Mevalonate kinase (Carex littledalei), 400 residues
Amino acid sequence: MEVKGRAPGKIILAGEHAVVHGAAAIAASIDLYTEVHLALRPSGQEDDLLEIDLKDMKLNLSWPCSQLKEVLGDCSGDTTLPRLCTSEKLDLLSGIVAEKKLPQENIQLSSGLCAFLFLYTSILGFKPGKAVVTSELPMGSGLGSSASFCVALSGALIALSEKLFLNANEKKIDLELVSKWAYEGERIIHGKPSGIDNTVSTFGNMIKFKKEVTKTNSITPVNSTTPLKMLITDTRVGRNTKSLVASVSERALRHPHAMSSIFDAINSISDELALLVESPAADQVAISEKEEKLMELMQMNQGLLQCIGVSHESIETVVRTTMKEKLVSKLTGAGGGGCVLTYVPTCILPLYGLFCPLSFFLQSELSAAVTENIISQIEECGFRCFTVEVGGSGLQVFSC
Ligand SMILES: Nc1ncnc2c1ncn2[C@@H]1O[C@H](COP(=O)(O)OP(=O)(O)OP(=O)(O)O)[C@@H](O)[C@H]1O
Ligand SMILES: C[C@@](O)(CCO)CC(=O)[O-]
Ligand SMILES: [Mg+2]
Protein backbone atom coordinates (compact mmCIF):
# COMPACT_ATOMS: atom_id res chain seq x y z
CA MET A 1 0.00 0.00 0.00
CA GLU A 2 1.28 3.47 -0.88
CA VAL A 3 0.16 6.94 0.15
CA LYS A 4 1.26 10.53 -0.29
CA GLY A 5 0.94 13.35 2.27
CA ARG A 6 1.19 16.95 1.06
CA ALA A 7 1.32 19.86 3.50
CA PRO A 8 1.89 23.60 3.02
CA GLY A 9 4.42 26.00 4.49
CA LYS A 10 3.26 29.16 6.22
CA ILE A 11 3.87 32.82 6.89
CA ILE A 12 3.35 34.53 10.23
CA LEU A 13 1.72 37.93 9.83
CA ALA A 14 2.13 38.83 13.50
CA GLY A 15 3.16 37.28 16.78
CA GLU A 16 6.08 34.91 16.20
CA HIS A 17 8.15 34.20 19.33
CA ALA A 18 5.62 36.01 21.54
CA VAL A 19 3.27 33.09 20.75
CA VAL A 20 5.67 30.72 22.53
CA HIS A 21 5.14 32.88 25.64
CA GLY A 22 1.34 32.90 25.47
CA ALA A 23 0.57 35.82 23.11
CA ALA A 24 -1.75 35.51 20.12
CA ALA A 25 -0.25 35.15 16.62
CA ILE A 26 -1.69 35.20 13.10
CA ALA A 27 -0.46 32.65 10.56
CA ALA A 28 -1.55 31.64 7.08
CA SER A 29 -0.68 28.74 4.81
CA ILE A 30 1.14 29.47 1.53
CA ASP A 31 1.15 27.65 -1.79
CA LEU A 32 4.53 25.96 -1.32
CA TYR A 33 4.39 22.34 -0.19
CA THR A 34 6.33 19.39 1.20
CA GLU A 35 5.36 15.95 -0.09
CA VAL A 36 6.07 12.63 1.58
CA HIS A 37 5.45 9.50 -0.47
CA LEU A 38 5.30 6.47 1.80
CA ALA A 39 5.29 2.79 0.82
CA LEU A 40 5.43 -0.30 3.01
CA ARG A 41 7.68 -3.09 1.76
CA PRO A 42 5.85 -6.40 1.26
CA SER A 43 6.32 -8.51 4.41
CA GLY A 44 8.44 -11.64 4.28
CA GLN A 45 11.05 -10.04 2.03
CA GLU A 46 14.73 -10.43 2.82
CA ASP A 47 15.48 -6.75 3.18
CA ASP A 48 13.85 -5.35 6.29
CA LEU A 49 14.96 -1.76 5.68
CA LEU A 50 13.39 1.51 6.73
CA GLU A 51 14.59 3.94 4.06
CA ILE A 52 14.29 7.69 3.59
CA ASP A 53 15.10 9.37 0.31
CA LEU A 54 15.50 13.15 0.66
CA LYS A 55 15.33 13.99 -3.03
CA ASP A 56 16.20 17.70 -2.80
CA MET A 57 19.33 16.96 -0.79
CA LYS A 58 20.19 13.88 -2.87
CA LEU A 59 20.50 11.99 0.38
CA ASN A 60 19.36 8.40 0.80
CA LEU A 61 19.62 6.67 4.19
CA SER A 62 18.37 3.36 5.50
CA TRP A 63 18.35 1.31 8.68
CA PRO A 64 17.54 -2.38 9.16
CA CYS A 65 14.28 -2.53 11.14
CA SER A 66 15.80 -5.27 13.31
CA GLN A 67 18.57 -2.84 14.36
CA LEU A 68 16.03 -0.07 15.10
CA LYS A 69 14.02 -2.51 17.22
CA GLU A 70 17.07 -3.62 19.14
CA VAL A 71 18.20 -0.06 19.92
CA LEU A 72 14.83 1.61 20.50
CA GLY A 73 13.01 -1.26 22.23
CA ASP A 74 9.23 -1.41 22.28
CA CYS A 75 7.70 1.55 20.42
CA SER A 76 4.15 0.25 20.29
CA GLY A 77 1.31 2.23 21.84
CA ASP A 78 -2.06 3.70 21.06
CA THR A 79 -1.56 5.70 17.84
CA THR A 80 -4.62 7.78 18.69
CA LEU A 81 -2.74 9.16 21.71
CA PRO A 82 0.37 10.99 20.43
CA ARG A 83 3.35 10.47 22.73
CA LEU A 84 6.19 12.75 23.69
CA CYS A 85 9.69 11.73 22.61
CA THR A 86 11.51 11.42 25.95
CA SER A 87 15.07 12.76 26.25
CA GLU A 88 16.35 9.15 26.66
CA LYS A 89 14.66 8.16 23.41
CA LEU A 90 15.94 11.28 21.67
CA ASP A 91 19.49 10.34 22.72
CA LEU A 92 18.99 6.87 21.20
CA LEU A 93 17.58 8.35 17.98
CA SER A 94 20.42 10.89 17.75
CA GLY A 95 22.92 8.03 18.10
CA ILE A 96 21.26 6.07 15.28
CA VAL A 97 21.36 9.15 13.03
CA ALA A 98 24.94 10.08 14.03
CA GLU A 99 26.16 6.64 12.90
CA LYS A 100 25.33 7.72 9.34
CA LYS A 101 28.00 10.44 9.53
CA LEU A 102 26.06 13.02 7.53
CA PRO A 103 28.19 15.35 5.41
CA GLN A 104 28.84 18.67 7.22
CA GLU A 105 26.60 20.62 4.79
CA ASN A 106 23.65 18.36 5.76
CA ILE A 107 24.24 18.20 9.49
CA GLN A 108 21.15 20.34 10.23
CA LEU A 109 19.07 17.46 8.87
CA SER A 110 19.86 15.35 11.95
CA SER A 111 16.90 16.70 13.92
CA GLY A 112 14.55 16.15 10.94
CA LEU A 113 15.80 12.56 10.66
CA CYS A 114 15.27 11.97 14.39
CA ALA A 115 11.71 13.29 13.98
CA PHE A 116 11.23 10.94 11.01
CA LEU A 117 12.42 7.87 12.93
CA PHE A 118 10.38 8.81 16.00
CA LEU A 119 7.13 9.38 14.08
CA TYR A 120 7.54 6.32 11.84
CA THR A 121 8.35 3.86 14.63
CA SER A 122 5.72 5.32 16.99
CA ILE A 123 2.93 5.07 14.40
CA LEU A 124 3.90 2.06 12.25
CA GLY A 125 6.28 0.18 14.55
CA PHE A 126 9.14 -1.61 12.84
CA LYS A 127 7.46 -2.39 9.51
CA PRO A 128 9.94 -2.07 6.63
CA GLY A 129 9.11 0.82 4.35
CA LYS A 130 10.35 3.71 2.26
CA ALA A 131 9.65 7.45 2.44
CA VAL A 132 10.47 9.75 -0.46
CA VAL A 133 10.50 13.44 0.49
CA THR A 134 10.41 16.50 -1.78
CA SER A 135 9.84 20.11 -0.78
CA GLU A 136 9.28 23.46 -2.50
CA LEU A 137 10.14 25.29 0.72
CA PRO A 138 13.56 26.72 1.49
CA MET A 139 14.68 24.74 4.52
CA GLY A 140 15.30 26.52 7.81
CA SER A 141 14.14 29.92 6.48
CA GLY A 142 11.04 30.78 8.48
CA LEU A 143 8.43 29.39 6.08
CA GLY A 144 7.64 26.39 8.26
CA SER A 145 9.65 23.72 6.42
CA SER A 146 9.93 21.65 9.61
CA ALA A 147 6.19 21.73 10.31
CA SER A 148 5.18 20.94 6.72
CA PHE A 149 7.59 17.98 6.75
CA CYS A 150 6.17 16.68 10.07
CA VAL A 151 2.55 17.21 8.96
CA ALA A 152 2.96 15.57 5.53
CA LEU A 153 4.79 12.64 7.14
CA SER A 154 2.31 12.22 10.02
CA GLY A 155 -0.61 12.41 7.57
CA ALA A 156 0.88 9.66 5.41
CA LEU A 157 1.72 7.51 8.45
CA ILE A 158 -1.77 7.81 9.97
CA ALA A 159 -3.36 7.03 6.59
CA LEU A 160 -1.26 3.86 6.31
CA SER A 161 -1.79 2.79 9.91
CA GLU A 162 -5.56 3.22 9.65
CA LYS A 163 -5.65 1.65 6.16
CA LEU A 164 -7.63 4.68 5.03
CA PHE A 165 -7.67 3.88 1.36
CA LEU A 166 -8.15 0.10 1.61
CA ASN A 167 -11.36 -1.87 0.99
CA ALA A 168 -13.56 1.17 0.38
CA ASN A 169 -12.73 2.46 3.86
CA GLU A 170 -14.64 5.74 3.99
CA LYS A 171 -13.14 7.01 7.19
CA LYS A 172 -11.67 10.49 6.80
CA ILE A 173 -8.24 11.40 8.09
CA ASP A 174 -8.34 12.79 11.62
CA LEU A 175 -6.62 16.18 11.18
CA GLU A 176 -6.48 16.86 14.93
CA LEU A 177 -4.59 13.63 15.42
CA VAL A 178 -2.17 14.39 12.58
CA SER A 179 -1.48 17.84 13.98
CA LYS A 180 -0.77 16.40 17.44
CA TRP A 181 1.72 13.85 16.08
CA ALA A 182 3.33 16.55 13.93
CA TYR A 183 3.68 18.68 17.07
CA GLU A 184 5.69 15.87 18.70
CA GLY A 185 7.95 15.87 15.61
CA GLU A 186 8.25 19.67 15.84
CA ARG A 187 9.27 19.32 19.48
CA ILE A 188 12.26 17.25 18.36
CA ILE A 189 13.25 19.91 15.78
CA HIS A 190 12.29 23.14 17.64
CA GLY A 191 12.74 22.23 21.29
CA LYS A 192 9.81 24.35 22.50
CA PRO A 193 7.34 25.01 19.67
CA SER A 194 4.10 26.84 20.31
CA GLY A 195 2.20 24.57 17.92
CA ILE A 196 1.19 27.34 15.50
CA ASP A 197 3.21 26.00 12.56
CA ASN A 198 1.90 22.42 12.63
CA THR A 199 -1.66 23.74 13.18
CA VAL A 200 -1.70 26.06 10.17
CA SER A 201 0.07 23.51 7.98
CA THR A 202 -2.54 20.87 8.90
CA PHE A 203 -5.68 23.01 8.63
CA GLY A 204 -4.57 25.61 6.06
CA ASN A 205 -6.15 29.08 5.55
CA MET A 206 -5.49 31.86 8.06
CA ILE A 207 -5.74 31.38 11.82
CA LYS A 208 -5.34 33.24 15.05
CA PHE A 209 -3.52 30.95 17.46
CA LYS A 210 -2.97 31.23 21.19
CA LYS A 211 -1.15 28.60 23.20
CA GLU A 212 -2.89 27.51 26.36
CA VAL A 213 -1.05 25.79 29.16
CA THR A 214 -3.88 24.06 31.00
CA LYS A 215 -6.51 23.67 28.27
CA THR A 216 -6.50 23.08 24.52
CA ASN A 217 -4.92 25.80 22.38
CA SER A 218 -7.23 28.49 21.08
CA ILE A 219 -7.46 28.32 17.29
CA THR A 220 -9.77 30.79 15.52
CA PRO A 221 -10.19 31.04 11.74
CA VAL A 222 -9.46 34.52 10.34
CA ASN A 223 -11.52 35.19 7.23
CA SER A 224 -9.77 37.81 5.18
CA THR A 225 -12.15 40.07 3.24
CA THR A 226 -9.43 41.09 0.77
CA PRO A 227 -6.70 39.00 -0.88
CA LEU A 228 -3.30 39.69 0.70
CA LYS A 229 -0.35 39.96 -1.65
CA MET A 230 2.98 39.22 -0.05
CA LEU A 231 6.42 39.50 -1.52
CA ILE A 232 8.85 37.17 0.20
CA THR A 233 12.59 37.72 0.34
CA ASP A 234 14.81 34.82 1.24
CA THR A 235 17.95 36.45 2.63
CA ARG A 236 19.66 33.03 2.34
CA VAL A 237 21.13 33.61 5.79
CA GLY A 238 20.93 30.24 7.54
CA ARG A 239 19.45 30.06 11.03
CA ASN A 240 17.85 27.60 13.31
CA THR A 241 14.48 28.03 14.98
CA LYS A 242 15.45 25.99 18.06
CA SER A 243 18.33 28.27 19.06
CA LEU A 244 16.41 31.50 18.28
CA VAL A 245 13.46 30.37 20.42
CA ALA A 246 15.91 29.47 23.21
CA SER A 247 17.65 32.87 22.95
CA VAL A 248 14.34 34.71 23.38
CA SER A 249 13.51 32.60 26.43
CA GLU A 250 16.91 33.43 27.92
CA ARG A 251 16.33 37.16 27.36
CA ALA A 252 12.90 36.78 28.99
CA LEU A 253 14.58 35.25 32.04
CA ARG A 254 17.06 38.13 32.23
CA HIS A 255 14.42 40.88 31.76
CA PRO A 256 11.06 39.36 32.76
CA HIS A 257 9.08 42.61 33.10
CA ALA A 258 10.34 44.33 29.97
CA MET A 259 9.92 41.19 27.87
CA SER A 260 6.46 40.48 29.21
CA SER A 261 5.40 44.03 28.22
CA ILE A 262 6.74 43.40 24.72
CA PHE A 263 4.83 40.10 24.47
CA ASP A 264 1.67 41.95 25.61
CA ALA A 265 2.19 44.60 22.94
CA ILE A 266 2.62 41.89 20.29
CA ASN A 267 -0.54 40.20 21.54
CA SER A 268 -2.44 43.47 20.97
CA ILE A 269 -0.96 43.78 17.48
CA SER A 270 -2.16 40.26 16.61
CA ASP A 271 -5.65 40.93 18.00
CA GLU A 272 -5.92 44.18 16.06
CA LEU A 273 -4.53 42.65 12.88
CA ALA A 274 -7.08 39.80 12.97
CA LEU A 275 -9.97 42.26 13.35
CA LEU A 276 -8.59 44.46 10.59
CA VAL A 277 -8.12 41.61 8.10
CA GLU A 278 -11.73 40.51 8.72
CA SER A 279 -13.23 43.99 8.48
CA PRO A 280 -15.11 44.82 5.27
CA ALA A 281 -13.88 47.72 3.14
CA ALA A 282 -16.49 48.94 0.70
CA ASP A 283 -14.59 51.44 -1.43
CA GLN A 284 -11.07 52.47 -2.43
CA VAL A 285 -10.80 54.96 0.45
CA ALA A 286 -11.71 52.30 3.01
CA ILE A 287 -9.37 49.76 1.38
CA SER A 288 -6.45 52.15 1.41
CA GLU A 289 -7.07 53.07 5.07
CA LYS A 290 -7.20 49.38 5.94
CA GLU A 291 -3.97 48.69 4.07
CA GLU A 292 -2.17 51.56 5.78
CA LYS A 293 -3.22 50.26 9.19
CA LEU A 294 -2.06 46.76 8.29
CA MET A 295 1.33 48.10 7.24
CA GLU A 296 1.64 50.09 10.44
CA LEU A 297 0.92 46.99 12.53
CA MET A 298 3.53 44.97 10.63
CA GLN A 299 6.05 47.78 11.10
CA MET A 300 5.37 47.89 14.86
CA ASN A 301 5.71 44.11 15.08
CA GLN A 302 9.08 44.21 13.27
CA GLY A 303 10.31 46.88 15.70
CA LEU A 304 9.38 44.68 18.66
CA LEU A 305 10.99 41.61 17.06
CA GLN A 306 14.17 43.64 16.79
CA CYS A 307 13.80 44.52 20.48
CA ILE A 308 13.67 40.85 21.49
CA GLY A 309 16.84 40.15 19.51
CA VAL A 310 15.69 38.08 16.53
CA SER A 311 16.21 40.49 13.66
CA HIS A 312 19.41 40.40 11.60
CA GLU A 313 21.48 42.72 9.43
CA SER A 314 20.11 41.01 6.30
CA ILE A 315 16.51 41.50 7.51
CA GLU A 316 17.18 45.16 8.31
CA THR A 317 18.62 45.63 4.81
CA VAL A 318 15.33 44.39 3.31
CA VAL A 319 13.32 46.60 5.71
CA ARG A 320 15.36 49.69 4.68
CA THR A 321 15.26 48.89 0.95
CA THR A 322 11.48 48.49 0.87
CA MET A 323 10.99 51.51 3.14
CA LYS A 324 12.62 53.68 0.43
CA GLU A 325 9.60 52.73 -1.72
CA LYS A 326 7.21 53.37 1.19
CA LEU A 327 6.54 49.66 1.70
CA VAL A 328 6.74 47.82 5.01
CA SER A 329 8.55 44.56 5.75
CA LYS A 330 8.84 42.28 8.71
CA LEU A 331 10.62 39.01 9.36
CA THR A 332 8.47 35.89 9.36
CA GLY A 333 9.00 32.76 11.44
CA ALA A 334 11.95 32.64 13.79
CA GLY A 335 14.05 35.42 12.19
CA GLY A 336 17.84 35.64 12.59
CA GLY A 337 18.08 35.68 8.76
CA GLY A 338 15.71 33.50 6.74
CA CYS A 339 12.67 35.07 5.07
CA VAL A 340 11.16 38.57 5.20
CA LEU A 341 7.58 39.54 4.25
CA THR A 342 6.81 42.70 2.34
CA TYR A 343 3.16 43.64 2.10
CA VAL A 344 2.21 44.86 -1.38
CA PRO A 345 -0.92 47.01 -1.06
CA THR A 346 -3.47 47.10 -3.85
CA CYS A 347 -3.91 50.87 -3.30
CA ILE A 348 -0.42 52.11 -3.89
CA LEU A 349 -1.20 55.70 -5.03
CA PRO A 350 -2.13 57.06 -1.56
CA LEU A 351 1.32 56.06 -0.32
CA TYR A 352 2.70 58.66 -2.70
CA GLY A 353 0.20 61.30 -1.57
CA LEU A 354 -1.93 60.83 -4.70
CA PHE A 355 -5.53 59.80 -4.76
CA CYS A 356 -7.35 58.46 -7.77
CA PRO A 357 -10.44 56.40 -6.84
CA LEU A 358 -11.50 55.40 -10.36
CA SER A 359 -8.24 54.28 -11.73
CA PHE A 360 -8.00 50.62 -10.71
CA PHE A 361 -5.96 49.92 -13.83
CA LEU A 362 -3.48 52.64 -12.91
CA GLN A 363 -3.25 51.27 -9.37
CA SER A 364 -2.39 47.74 -10.46
CA GLU A 365 0.04 48.99 -13.14
CA LEU A 366 1.83 51.12 -10.58
CA SER A 367 1.78 48.35 -7.99
CA ALA A 368 3.45 46.00 -10.51
CA ALA A 369 6.07 48.63 -11.41
CA VAL A 370 6.88 49.39 -7.75
CA THR A 371 7.13 45.67 -6.94
CA GLU A 372 9.45 45.05 -9.89
CA ASN A 373 11.65 47.97 -8.88
CA ILE A 374 11.84 46.71 -5.29
CA ILE A 375 12.60 43.15 -6.38
CA SER A 376 15.54 44.31 -8.47
CA GLN A 377 16.92 46.44 -5.61
CA ILE A 378 16.57 43.55 -3.13
CA GLU A 379 18.10 41.03 -5.52
CA GLU A 380 21.10 43.33 -6.01
CA CYS A 381 21.86 42.65 -2.32
CA GLY A 382 22.19 38.94 -3.15
CA PHE A 383 18.76 37.95 -1.82
CA ARG A 384 16.04 35.98 -3.65
CA CYS A 385 12.44 37.26 -4.05
CA PHE A 386 9.23 35.45 -4.85
CA THR A 387 5.49 35.98 -4.33
CA VAL A 388 3.10 33.53 -2.69
CA GLU A 389 -0.63 32.90 -2.52
CA VAL A 390 -1.76 33.32 1.06
CA GLY A 391 -4.31 31.09 2.81
CA GLY A 392 -4.77 27.96 0.70
CA SER A 393 -5.46 24.36 1.61
CA GLY A 394 -3.87 22.46 4.48
CA LEU A 395 -2.87 18.78 4.59
CA GLN A 396 -4.01 16.52 1.76
CA VAL A 397 -3.50 12.77 1.74
CA PHE A 398 -3.79 10.68 -1.42
CA SER A 399 -3.68 7.00 -2.22
CA CYS A 400 -1.02 6.19 -4.85
N1 LIG B 1 12.06 18.31 3.73
C1 LIG B 1 12.68 18.04 4.88
N2 LIG B 1 13.27 16.83 5.07
C2 LIG B 1 13.89 16.55 6.23
N3 LIG B 1 14.03 17.42 7.26
C3 LIG B 1 13.48 18.61 7.11
C4 LIG B 1 12.78 19.00 5.92
N4 LIG B 1 12.36 20.27 6.07
C5 LIG B 1 12.78 20.66 7.29
N5 LIG B 1 13.44 19.69 7.92
C6 LIG B 1 14.06 19.74 9.25
O1 LIG B 1 13.69 20.98 9.84
C7 LIG B 1 14.85 21.81 10.07
C8 LIG B 1 14.49 23.26 9.81
O2 LIG B 1 13.54 23.63 10.75
P1 LIG B 1 13.46 25.07 11.38
O3 LIG B 1 12.31 25.04 12.28
O4 LIG B 1 14.78 25.47 11.92
O5 LIG B 1 13.16 26.02 10.12
P2 LIG B 1 11.78 26.31 9.38
O6 LIG B 1 10.75 25.37 9.88
O7 LIG B 1 12.04 26.33 7.93
O8 LIG B 1 11.47 27.80 9.87
P3 LIG B 1 10.39 28.30 10.97
O9 LIG B 1 10.32 27.27 12.03
O10 LIG B 1 10.97 29.60 11.47
O11 LIG B 1 9.14 28.50 10.21
C9 LIG B 1 15.89 21.29 9.09
O12 LIG B 1 17.19 21.59 9.53
C10 LIG B 1 15.59 19.79 9.11
O13 LIG B 1 16.15 19.16 10.23
C1 LIG C 1 9.43 31.40 16.35
C2 LIG C 1 8.10 30.67 16.38
O1 LIG C 1 7.17 31.50 17.10
C3 LIG C 1 7.49 30.52 14.99
C4 LIG C 1 8.34 29.74 14.04
O2 LIG C 1 7.67 29.65 12.79
C5 LIG C 1 8.26 29.35 17.08
C6 LIG C 1 6.94 28.69 17.43
O3 LIG C 1 5.94 29.35 17.61
O4 LIG C 1 6.97 27.45 17.56
MG1 LIG D 1 10.27 25.21 11.91
